[in-house]
């Protein structure tokens, strides 16, 4: 049975910014990849209305997932409607039981916007409920057992909503895949509203690279890196479960002797 890694983020392009390099390296290590944005990107433009924008962003995200060989999962709600509530959790719990990941990649619990933090909370709870027969998933799906180890990506800018630094415990060296990461991000052409108009997509990609460079600098070892913190094992996995580090030992380092 294939080992599985599941990346869940808030919006189309979030995975590309903070998770995709790690996903590519996990693919090389033999993992089956799954890719999901809880929100559909409906508010990600000042040029297009939501009815026009949503299918555009779905196609961009789907192409990005296919680029790295990941299974694409449909979004569940609109932007700014990622609320921590039962109906949305039940739908995500069903998908979590279907995918049954060994590695779960999520946003930071502390970030600059609510969609990111609520997507994180929903992902954590959906994983926690994976083996609870009395929590009804929608659509109904059999519970799953076994370990799932949860890892949190860095918040945008490596700071929380109060502008306090957030430091990773795990650094994944993405230098070898930084250009593929850039290609993956470049599928999101609808995001030109938010770019430096003089540079177009180059500005978008440059921002991502500089964020990865900043994490690489924090590592003291790598040119470009993605940063991670491991969620508590309680309710999820064995105390010593750390499949991300085990799979990527040649591409990672830690600042915690317990990892």
What do you see in this structure?
With 259 residues, the chain is of the alpha/beta class. The chain has a single domain (3-254), classed as LmbE-like (Rossmann fold). The protein is built from eight helices and eight strands, in the order βααβαβαβαββααβαβ. The protein has helices spanning 14-18, 20-28, 50-67, 86-99, 114-128, 178-185, 201-219, 243-247, and strands spanning 3-9, 31-37, 70-73, 103-106, 149-153, 170-173, 225-230, 252-254. The longest helix has 19 residues, at 201-219. It is globular, with a radius of gyration of 17 Å.
How would you describe this structure in keywords?
single chain, 259 residues, alpha/beta, Rossmann fold, 8-stranded mixed β-sheet, 8 strands, 36% helix, 15% strand, globular
Q: Please tell me what the overall shape is.
A: globular
Second rung of CATH, namely the architecture = 3-Layer(aba) Sandwich
The main β sheet shows up as:
8 strands, mixed
**Total number of helical segments?**
8
* Estimated share of beta-strand residues: 15-25%
CA-based gyration radius: 17 Å
Q: How many distinct domains? A: 1
* Alpha-beta classification: alpha/beta
What oligomerization state is this entry in?
A: single chain
**Fraction of helical residues:** 25-40%
Broad CATH class: Alpha Beta
- End-to-end gap: 26 Å
Arrangement of strands in the largest sheet: 3-2-1-4-5-7-6-8
Report mean pLDDT, rounded to a whole number: 94
Number of strands: 8
CATH fold annotation = Rossmann fold
Name the poorly predicted regions: none
CATH homologous superfamily - what is it? Answer: LmbE-like
From N to C, what is the helix and strand string?
EHHEHEHEHEEHHEHE
């Amino acid at each position: 049975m294939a080992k599985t890694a599941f990346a869940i983020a808030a919006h189309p392009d979030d995975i590309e910014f903070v998770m995709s390099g790690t996903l590519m390296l996990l693919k090389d290590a033999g993992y089956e990849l799954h890719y999901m944005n809880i929100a559909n990107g409906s508010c990600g433009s000042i040029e297009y209305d939501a009815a026009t924008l949503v299918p555009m962003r779905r196609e961009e995200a789907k192409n990005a997932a296919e680029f790295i060989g990941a299974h694409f999962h449909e979004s569940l709600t609109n932007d700014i409607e990622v609320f921590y509530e039962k109906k949305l959790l039940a739908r995500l719990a069903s998908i979590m039981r279907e995918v049954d990941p060994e590695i779960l990649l999520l946003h930071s619990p502390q970030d600059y916007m609510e969609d990111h933090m609520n997507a994180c909370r929903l992902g954590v709870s959906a994983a926690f409920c994976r083996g609870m027969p009395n929590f009804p998933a929608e659509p109904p799906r059999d519970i799953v057992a076994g370990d799932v180890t949860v890892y949190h990506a860095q918040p945008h800018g490596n700071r929380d909503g109060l502008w306090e630094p957030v430091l990773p415990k795990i650094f994944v060296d993405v230098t070898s895949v930084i250009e593929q990461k850039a290609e993956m991000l470049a599928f999101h052409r609808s995001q030109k509203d938010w770019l430096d108009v003089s540079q177009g997509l180059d500005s978008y990609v440059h921002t991502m690279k500089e964020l990865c460079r900043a994490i690489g600098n924090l590592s003291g070892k790598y040119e470009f890196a993605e940063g991670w913190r491991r969620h508590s094992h309680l309710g999820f996995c064995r105390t010593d479960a750390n499949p991300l580090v085990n799979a990527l030992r040649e591409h990672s380092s830690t600042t915690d002797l317990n990892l």
